[in-house]
Amino acid sequence: MYNFDFTRPSTIKDAVAAIGAGGQALSGGQTLIPTMKARLAMPETLVSLTGIQEMKGICTNDAGQICIGAATTHAEVAREVAKSYPALSDLAGHIGDPAVRNRGTIGGSLANNDPSACYPSAVLGSGAVVKTNSREIAADDFFQGMFTTALEEGEIITEVKFPVPQKANYQKFVQPASRFALVGVFVAKFADGVRVAVTGASGEGVFRWTEAEAALSKDFTAAALDSVAAPSADGMISDLHGTGAYRAHLVKVMTARAVAAA
Q1: pLDDT tens digit string along 31-62?
Q2: Mean pLDDT, to the nearest integer, of 241-257?
Q3: What percent of the chain has pLDDT over 70?
């Protein structure tokens, strides 16, 4: 590791100021630190967000949304929302390994937007709202492609607000070495329809499978997907773990499993 400066502000205002002065935001560090070790990123100053208490913790607001501070770890999410949002708890409880779950944060995961990360599917599938230091961004507008989000320079995620669906489930076909999703599908049924969000499959990152949403909004059963063609293999990730066609097939399989489990 090379030499760098480190600062740990205690307020969002101070963190934004430090980042604006050229610092690099650091949350759990599960992606950034390995990237720095490989010299793929070489920031001169790291601005830790883990000392900001207002970015930690979980509560329920007056609208019934579960509000999770961006600096809240995966392990805390898994533990604290087990009763209020079991599908989200189960997702968080199976991210990586215990070391990752006790260091990694929801805000860091969303800001990085890895195409195979689990949280983006929960946020998009739930129709959640990502709150930053300056605005609120709907999930449908937040994710903009592989490792790309709507965040502007110097903007940080402070909180995520999750509406709670009537039924929900997350199914992940695990890549066993990394524990990332080879394909992961988050299904959520609301009074006004069903949302299906897929991670791990597309080269463009997390996406909504609208054809499945339409079928499941009419009939929320796994059998409703029998007449729905799997997503096109075009644009799907192809690597040593599976071809694009294989991943497209898995999307349909994992969606059916999520519906059945929900």
Answers
A1: 999 999 999 999 999 999 999 999 999 999 99
A2: 97
A3: 100
Task: DSSP letter for 105, please.
Answer: B
Residue whose token pair is 């709670």:
164
- Cβ(124)–Cβ(200) below 8 Å: no
Judge whether 253 and 247 are in contact, CB under 8 Å.
no
**What torsion, rounded to 10 degrees, do the Cα atoms 38, 24, 135, 158 define?**
80
Give me 110's structure tokens.
């969303």
What confidence tier does 2 reach under pLDDT thresholds 50, 70, 90?
A: confident
Beta bridge partners of 132: 157
Helix, strand, or coil here: 167? strand
| Residue count of the chain | 262
Location of structure tokens 């490989």: 38
Pairing of strands 24-26, 157-162: unpaired
Alpha helices in the chain (DSSP H): 12-20, 32-37, 74-80, 86-92, 98-101, 106-112, 119-126, 139-142, 210-218, 244-261
AA letter at 129: V
Backbone φ and ψ for 82, nearest 5 degrees, come out as -60, -35
Res 219: pLDDT: 98
Mean pLDDT of the chain: 96
Cβ burial of 240 (10 Å; 0-12, 13-18, 19+) is exposed
Beta bridge partners of residue 137, listed in sequence order: 130
Q: Fill in the DSSP letter of residue 148.
A: -
Say if pTM beats, i.e. exceeds, 0.90.
yes
